[in-house]
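[recover] target loaded
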């Protein structure tokens, strides 16, 4: 049904024998091009949807170059998006298995028997007209140790008073000259804009700001306070910032440099929730 609605031509498969039948009865793409020999899973003009036999005789439903859904001979079904948490991958899983899958909080979630499961590593087995879950990753979310966090804030209490006073004096705005002096483009923002492998660079920048704060030197406090204010309004169209956004940045720095303040909680199987502190994952100890 899903494949017909999205015009991919993919018809859902539940069992290994169905996948094998489809693989052996579907004529491969002819010719000498890059797709020659490919067994299409959907419409023949969509070679990015493929069926293929693997060395262990399992049958993979492939999206581009990733074996997203694999049917084993014992009827075990394994879902492995290989890190691709895209809407197209969610749609592909939905179409192949005839289930509901979606992108949520930068990961893929599959809905089975009123439960919500991470797609990564999910193992299913067909029964009757549905599936049973035989293996899944349990979701982990993080809470915050309030007592420990309040202790960290106490260590920067005097600086926070200085920062609040400076923001009021500045009337929550920065001049062009002040922005140029802070020079976010060269010095970097204190925001947690983490991309791929730059977590260590971001952490180093936040540690530099914290060293200025710990020095208790008035000039260093002014520099770090201006850095925080400029970072809080970075990427906006005006020169204004809010006290809430600046103080939140200060909290972010404390958490990044003290990740044990975040307490992990393993959820029950079939429960998936948004992790309010997911942005700190690149800084957590493995």
């Amino acid at each position: 049904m899903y494949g017909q609605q999205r015009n991919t031509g993919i018809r859902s498969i539940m069992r290994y024998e169905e996948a094998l039948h489809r693989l052996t009865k579907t004529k491969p793409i002819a010719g000498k091009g890059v797709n020659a020999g490919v067994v299409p899973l959907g419409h023949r003009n969509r070679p990015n949807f493929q069926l293929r036999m693997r060395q262990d005789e399992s049958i993979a439903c492939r999206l581009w170059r990733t074996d997203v859904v694999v049917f084993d001979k014992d009827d075990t079904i394994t879902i492995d998006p290989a890190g691709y948490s895209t809407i197209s991958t969610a749609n592909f899983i939905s179409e192949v298995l005839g289930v509901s899958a979606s992108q949520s909080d930068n990961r893929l979630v599959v809905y089975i028997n009123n439960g919500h499961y991470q797609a990564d590593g999910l193992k299913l087995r067909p029964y009757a007209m549905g599936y049973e879950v035989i293996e899944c990753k349990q979701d982990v979310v993080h809470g915050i140790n309030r007592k420990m966090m309040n202790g960290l804030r106490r260590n920067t209490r005097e600086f926070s008073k200085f920062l609040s006073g400076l923001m009021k004096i500045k009337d929550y705005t920065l001049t062009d000259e002040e922005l140029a002096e802070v020079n976010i483009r060269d010095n970097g923002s204190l925001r947690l804009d983490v991309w791929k492998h730059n977590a260590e660079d971001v952490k180093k920048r936040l540690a530099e700001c914290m060293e200025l704060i710990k020095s208790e030197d008035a000039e260093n406090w002014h520099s770090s306070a201006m850095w925080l204010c400029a970072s809080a309004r970075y990427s906006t169209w005006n020169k204004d910032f809010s006290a809430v956004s600046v103080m939140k940045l200060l909290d972010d720095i404390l958490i990044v440099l003290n990740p044990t303040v975040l307490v992990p909680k393993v959820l029950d199987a079939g429960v998936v929730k948004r992790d309010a502190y997911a942005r700190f994952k690149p800084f957590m100890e493995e």
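[recover] notes: The chain has ten helices and twelve strands.
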